[in-house]
Amino acid sequence: MALSCKELLKNYRENNYEKIPKKLAFKGVSIKDIYNITAPFFDNDIETLAGRVEDRNSELSKVMFFQRHDNNWCHVVNSPVFNLQDPFFTKIKGDLIIGGVQIFPNNINGKIESWRTVMYKGKDIFNLKLFFIGPDDMKDLRIVELNSGEIGIFSRPQGIKGGKGKIGFTKVDTIDHLSIGIINNASLLNDLFEDSEWGGANAIYPLFDNYVGVLGHIACSDENNNRHYYSMSFIFDTETSKYSDVKILAERSDFLPGESKRPDLNDVIFSGGMILNDEKAFLYTGVSDAESQIIEINNPFIDFTKNCMKGSL
User: Fold this and answer.
1) What is the pTM of this model?
2) Are 212 and 206 in contact (CB under 8 A)?
3) Per DSSP, what are the bridge partners of residue 171?
4) Which of 16, 40, 201, 290 has its CA 20 to 30 A from that of 98?
5) pLDDT tens figures, 170-208
């Protein structure tokens, strides 16, 4: 049975430990919020990340690329700019995959009426070409190259299938077999979230054999419609579809104080990705839909890797 955000948060706080947060500084984009970043990746041997860039009073976002120079992340001049939200990346067969959420606002009142995940592929950020458009009304669609060479697909349907948002899983032999039909038919991980809550996968980390570590978010709302988002992880067996319980990795109060896009988003963090470093990990996170921070945490997959899956999930 799924544990609620309240129960997971209680467990987390009882076992909390000191963490080291730091705000990320960006250059080259004037008076914009930059948040919901990816973890860094190497593009032509240069440390690079993608971030969601927008005005404080708007959700009409752009995804832009930044590269590290000393202690700043500087906009990459002449790099592509996509009209997307919430970027992510992975690498498959040596190609860089960049994705994000395409939104469709109402022409009259500007309210976002629908969305979908789109993905680009190329050898580097300057050679990205659109290669896949996901199902309507699905955010948090992620793909990963598994140790078997197959492509794992983590979906996030909402509505009749998925309610407020549940994670599904399926896989295909090659990236060329990726299709809307296969994604829509992915089996749900029904006991991962309570029906009144929601979540999604943000980044996938192949571990060993058929196991992957999933970094994601779990969320709920309170009686005042304030949203509460937490970074979480779990272990997933891509052969049997068994999975461990969700474990919260961080909450908003672990990070440095800062601004918020709106009052109802004060308690929101959005996991962008991690750099795993043996016992520790660096978690790259969007904070309160207004800024980006990095926090050093314990590697959430290290104990599982050390134990090499003695017993079942």
Assistant:
1) 0.95
2) yes
3) 152
4) 290
5) 999 999 999 999 999 999 999 999 999 999 999 999 999
